[in-house]
Description:
Elements: E1 2-7, H1 12-27, E2 31-36, H2 53-62, E3 67-71, H3 72-77, E4 88-89, H4 91-100, E5 103-106
Parallel strand pairs: 1-2, 1-5, 2-3, 3-4
Amino acid sequence: MKLSIILSTKNAETNWNALRLANLAFKKGDEVSVFLLGEAVEYDKVNQKPFNIKEQVNMLLQTGRAKLVACGTCMDIRHKESSKTCPMGGIEDLYSLIATSDKVITF
């Protein structure tokens, strides 16, 4: 299955659960993409115990096959630079994920 997860919040617990789901789906053999939209592009600024978001993102990125993309416009609004853990993309990337996915989940 091709699964796309859209995060639109920087709530630590919500993002932690979404990323845990992404990692589980990947371990089960699914193709996984995560798109960061709106305030979710700031997810890396919020790392509260016991919700270790950075650990979940690192696990996902270590696979080398999972895709993580952030809305470039949302990043520009927040004066945020592209990085490995928050790579800049665009609305075209979001459209492509939606159009080609078997399932799309939003958080």
